[in-house]
Specification:
This protein has helices at about 5-10, 45-55, 75-80, 90, and strands at about 15, 20-25, 30, 35. By secondary structure, the protein is mainly alpha-helical. The protein has one domain: Rossmann fold.
Length: about 110
């Protein structure tokens, strides 16, 4: 999935807010924002985006997927599930976690 395809998916689900005055959590100001929460109800698109992220790291011996507990855990779990070689042990404790910090991938 290239950058244009990602932008098409985000646009299709209404996740891109453009031509607006946005104050980011950092305090900086901008005109464009991607509302990741708008993607989540569209499970096929969310899965495609997670697959694309995981694919970018396929050759990088990733051992841990870390995601913010608020808002990022959906993408983190999606990347984890799409990285390949996942075991039942990898996801056994996920419901207990508030984030995907320290999830061991290679059992």
């Amino acid at each position: 999935m290239n950058e244009q395809e990602v932008l098409q998916v985000l646009g299709k689900v209404g996740a891109v807010i453009a031509d607006s005055h946005i104050v980011y959590t950092s305090g900086k100001h901008g005109t464009v924002y991607v509302n990741k929460d708008a993607v989540y109800p569209h499970t096929a698109e969310t899965s495609r985006l997670c697959q694309a992220i995981a694919k970018r790291f396929v050759d990088d011996k990733v051992e841990v997927v870390i995601a913010p507990a608020i808002g990022g855990n959906v993408i983190g779990l999606g990347v984890l599930c799409n990285r390949g070689g996942i075991t039942t042990q990898d996801v056994a404790d996920v419901p207990k976690l508030t984030s995907l910090v320290n999830v061991k991938l290679d059992a």
